[in-house]
Please model this.
Amino acid sequence: MLKEKLKKHIEKVIQLTNDEYSFVSSHFSFENYKKNDFLIQKGENVKHFYYVVSGLLKLVYDDIDGKQHIVSFAMEDWWESDFLAYFTKTKATMSLQCIEDTHVFCLTLENYEKLISDLPKMESFFLKKSISGHIASQNRILSFLTSNAKERYEQLLKQYPLLFQRVPKTLLASYLGVSRETLSRLSS
Amino acid sequence: MLKEKLKKHIEKVIQLTNDEYSFVSSHFSFENYKKNDFLIQKGENVKHFYYVVSGLLKLVYDDIDGKQHIVSFAMEDWWESDFLAYFTKTKATMSLQCIEDTHVFCLTLENYEKLISDLPKMESFFLKKSISGHIASQNRILSFLTSNAKERYEQLLKQYPLLFQRVPKTLLASYLGVSRETLSRLSS
DNA sequence: TTACAATTGTGATGTTTGTCACGCGCAGAT
DNA sequence: ATCTGCGCGTGACAAACATCACAATTGTAA
Model:
């Protein structure tokens, strides 16, 4: 069952009784999205923080020239949103869009705040997740600082071997910060 | 007084009574470091998480070729460490070193855990700080994706105008991910 | 099936950036 | 005062990467 997946995910970090988990899960809604659907659209309010049960999302920034830049892929077990817009109640600067059909649990800011204040363990959970995310971002920054396109590509494939089959190369390129053509030439 | 600075900093995010703050500050030690001193050395254990009262630090990754890459500058009011090494009790992969004489408050992992479990408000504080840090890292990633060396340089100067006078251009270059020579040519 | 859009590879060429080399000015040490 | 190392600029050249153009293939919807 879908809710079991979230439970197991959370219990990798903190312990929850069944009652506590019922309380947790009552704060989430569930949603199905189809390929190419938007969960968050640039310029609009960000209503939710998402937990990806299955599928694949891209967090995208569109620059002035209309180019897409992938800030993050969000796959199974990932938590994703436009966090700045979500927490500050401002308009989204990024979009969150399905690469594949995707199942998510959705958490409004209101419910997020209720949840962490009524069940402090969940604040611990989110803190640990946030720290992990911060460390992951630092590693990505480091890969920009230390590595060229080919090395970054190899690191990505090593870290997420699945991604190679699941997403078009154009998207990998715009995650790595190189042109589609350059990425294509790296394989040879 | 120095402890007042930390108090004001924390109170921008959460409210604390005087007793609570005494409790908080009892978990920190205070330390002075001189220019070029190391707070964290690559390969060693990371004993502390630091709050910078005054001065300036660099969080540095040394690559295989001996090149330095600056993951972060840590200035007044910043929290810094090699977080992965700190939280997982592994050896540091990065170094934290003084660019200027620096005053810091130091928090051991033991005291961190005591602090957040005995005073849940502090867990809220660190969660909010961590989220901000995560958002900041994402913006840095975005600047690598969307901008060339000149644009990144201008963004950096806009964000931290002080930095230009306080640190050698070589360090700015290794923060921006360009060579010293390229950075030098950008000014013209 | 048929038609059309999306994906990918690849050549030619230009731009950006890195590397190596050198010189100058300045601050700190002796 | 002299020496020495560091910071900084700059020229010459090489490497990495972007851009534009075109073709082939595959997936997808009517």
